[in-house]
Predict the 3D structure of the following.
Amino acid sequence: NALWGNHVSVLVGDFFYSRASQLLIEQGNTRILKVLADCTIATTEGEIWETLKSSDLDTNRDDYINIIKLKTAFLFQAACQVGGILGGVSDCFVKALSDYGLHLGMAFQLVDDILDYNASEDVFGKSQGIDLREGKLTLPLILSLGRAAPDEKQVIKNAVLADKIDQELFERVRQIIRKYHGFEDTLGLAVEHIAQAKQSLDPFRESLEKGILASLADYVINRER
């Protein structure tokens, strides 16, 4: 995304998904095909729901959690689940990997929604405030909207409903989110999911591979892109 932009990245993702499906059909692995089909349905449902909730100021925490679970976490879950199936591990280990992926995906999206407001554009690969400019109410904004004073709520509402947001309005919204600990509390929830992701790995013996998965979880929390 940082090199070629969102459009090319989406097309490449579509190609990889189609190629993976083609390989699975050739191998006749119906179990994995079902995982991918279920994931595709969930991801699409999440994207549709997110679109329907665009600029909806009544969007609450539960709405948001369900959306990111569908559109992001289930994708991570499916990837980890497929890895376990291809690795030939027993069902209990496939379940452990599935749980790991789900929590990793939740944390990834939570951090992504923080970075959308705060990340360096050069590092993150896209402009700040895209979610706000598209009318998306992510958790930092949802939490702050529920805590803000009436005049501050109006600032947020004006930004969410605006056709165009200038830098001054964006900075004002970001200040309100910081004031009411929207970023801090969103990161706290991400940390909880990372802890659960690592705990999901408990059934596995200590190994290089387990250490890599744990390190990946730490990276998700500390990433800047």
